[in-house]
Amino acid sequence: MFIREASIADYPQLRQIYLESRRESFHWVNADEMSLEDFDRDTSEEQILLAEENDQVLGFASLYVPNRFIHNLFVHPAAAGRGVGDLLLKSAVAELGTPVTLKCVSENHKALSFYKKRGWRAVVEEGEPGAKYWVLVYE
């Protein structure tokens, strides 16, 4: 498994990963409102790193470089538990430098645990009721 920067040729696989991952884990959102086009909108103006193995994209991280911010980190459900997210997270931090921040939906307990186990610190919970998220920092 290796990490590389995404190209436009990778977008069909990236769109699918984004859609399938959210449909499986975002229980607080109506899955019928999600679409493949969400990926393009939600990663606009971001650098995208992807994890690949045997010509198969396993996951990605999208980075908003000017703010040292990890906007998205998604692993295909079939690749969960194989270290993909950990490798993407480490690569994103290496690319951005520290301190680096990200936001994690408060309802996403599995993701919050993932980040905290890797040394991320929850700084503040923000957002409206029903749409709360934690700001996390890695220094």
TrEMBL record:
Gene3D superfamilies on file: 3.40.630.30
InterPro entries registered for this protein in UniProt: Acyl_CoA_acyltransferase, Bact_Acetyltransf, GNAT_dom
SUPFAM superfamilies found in the cross-reference section: Acyl-CoA N-acyltransferases (Nat) (SSF55729)
Transferase keyword on record: yes
Family annotation (CDD domains): NAT_SF (cd04301)
Domain of life where this protein originates: Bacteria
Domain spans labelled N-acetyltransferase: 1-139
EC number of this enzyme: 2.3.-.-
Keywords from the named record: Acyltransferase, Transferase
Alphabetized GO MF terms: acyltransferase activity
Enzyme class: transferase
Database matches in PANTHER family: AMINOALKYLPHOSPHONATE N-ACETYLTRANSFERASE-RELATED-RELATED
UniProt-recorded name of the protein: GNAT family N-acetyltransferase
